[in-house]
Every structure is written in structure tokens, then in C-alpha cells.
Q: What sequence folds into this?
């Protein structure tokens, strides 16, 4: 079984609809992240959470919200989807490890959700 | 200027060739460095961490140059299965975004 799962894997929706993307992990990691990937722009961080009571905005949080329901679950919502939110969305987890005193935050990604907003 | 910059490629090289990618970063507070590999339409996966002294994992060698703020990845004896996009990743603990991904370098190995 995959350690990080995302649902749905593909979604086509219309402008103005509310969409929720779900992420679950069995790795036991404290830290969870949501990214979006667009061609030529790489991955950009939307939100991240270092534990259940911790939510932080990333680089591009406008138009998105998140909920950390439990250590293993982190969901991303688009309250009113717009076409420029069409992208590939990845959830990731990391453990707060250190290597020689430096944080590593190795990211473990889910398989991605391809979202199309018409 | 982007915080992490990579040559997007594509690099198209014959099987068995040696290929090298560079990645530059702008924030001197960066503490951890990584190379990830991403296959088409798949999730990124960690290829290797990059240590100050340089490190090697089979055919792959990673180097860090803090003075010039770049990291490199060398692939020797390239295989068809090495075809992928290689992402440079930098961890900046003092930054709100924490972890910055480069936009990737596309590598295509031809028979």
C-alpha cells in the first residue's frame, strides 16, 4: 500500500465550484505539505503544517484553504475554483529529521491529483 | 531572480554518456540540498541528498559549492531509464516557504 495517498486522482470541475482534495499518510510523519505544479514553474508550496495545530501559508496560498484533521490527514480546499487553478496538485509529508545538525525535511510525495477547472 | 534556478534542458544524450546538471541558489541561509527525480506525470522522488563534502551513489555524484552557491549532479554511464526530469531542492529554514524546488532539468537518453 502507498504511504501517501491522494483522492481524487483526477477531477474536472467548473468555475465557481467548491473542490476538496484529500491526502492521507501512513508514514507517521508530523509534517504535511500541499504543492501545485505547473509546466515550466516547478512545484510551488501552497500550505504546510508541522503538526495538527499548526497551519502555515506557503508561497501561493490565495484562493486555497487547508484543514489538518488529524496527524495523518491534510485536505486542501478551493472555495470557488477558477481556471488558473488548473494544475497538478501534490501532497507531501516529511519527518523533522536532522543530519549533522541541519534540517533535512526529505519530502515524500503522494501520486498527485490532476485538477482541471473549466 | 528565482531562489533556485536550473537549466530546463532538454538534455538529449546517448546511452553510456556522462551528463552533468548545475543548479544555483540565491539564499545564503540555505542549509540542506537535494536532487529529486520526477518521471512524466508521476510524483517527485528523492534521488539523493547533497553534502558539503560531495557524495556518490553508484553512477550518481552530487557536489555542493557553498561559496558559489551551486549544486551539481553528475550521471555516469547513463541508462535509458535515467530519462526523467531532475529537480534541485533547497531547504531554507529561515524562509516562510522552507523548501524551494527548482523548475527541473529534463534529461532524455537515446539508444
A:
Amino acid at each position: 500500500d502507498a504511504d501517501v495517498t491522494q483522492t481524487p486522482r483526477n477531477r474536472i470541475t467548473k468555475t465557481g465550484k467548491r473542490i476538496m482534495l484529500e491526502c492521507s499518510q501512513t508514514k507517521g510523519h508530523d509534517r504535511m505539505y500541499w504543492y501545485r505544479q505547473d509546466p515550466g514553474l516547478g512545484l510551488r508550496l501552497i500550505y504546510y503544517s508541522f503538526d495538527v495545530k499548526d497551519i502555515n501559508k506557503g508561497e501561493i496560498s490565495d484562493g486555497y484553504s487547508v484543514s489538518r484533521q488529524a496527524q495523518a490527514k491534510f485536505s486542501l480546499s478551493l472555495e470557488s475554483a477558477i481556471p488558473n487553478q488548473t494544475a497538478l496538485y501534490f501532497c507531501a509529508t516529511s519527518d523533522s529529521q536532522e543530519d549533522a545538525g541541519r534540517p533535512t525535511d526529505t519530502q515524500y510525495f503522494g501520486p498527485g491529483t490532476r485538477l482541471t477547472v473549466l | 531572480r528565482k531562489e533556485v534556478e536550473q537549466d530546463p534542458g532538454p538534455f538529449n544524450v546517448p546511452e553510456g554518456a556522462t551528463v552533468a546538471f548545475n543548479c544555483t541558489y540565491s539564499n545564503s541561509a540555505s542549509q540542506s540540498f537535494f536532487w529529486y527525480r520526477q518521471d512524466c506525470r508521476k510524483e517527485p522522488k528523492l534521488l539523493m541528498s547533497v553534502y558539503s563534502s560531495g557524495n556518490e551513489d553508484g553512477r550518481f555524484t552530487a557536489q555542493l559549492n557553498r561559496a558559489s552557491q551551486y549544486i551539481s549532479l553528475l550521471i555516469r554511464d547513463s541508462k535509458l531509464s535515467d530519462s526523467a526530469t531532475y529537480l534541485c531542492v533547497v531547504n531554507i529554514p529561515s524562509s516562510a516557504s522552507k523548501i524551494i524546488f527548482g523548475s527541473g532539468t529534463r534529461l532524455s537518453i537515446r539508444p
Q: What stands out?
A: The interface with chain A takes residues 8, 31-32, 34, 36, 41-46, 49, 87, 89, 91, 93, 96-99, 101-104 of chain B (CB under 8 Å). Chain B has a mean pLDDT of 90. Residues 72 and 98 of chain B are 21 Å apart (CA to CA).
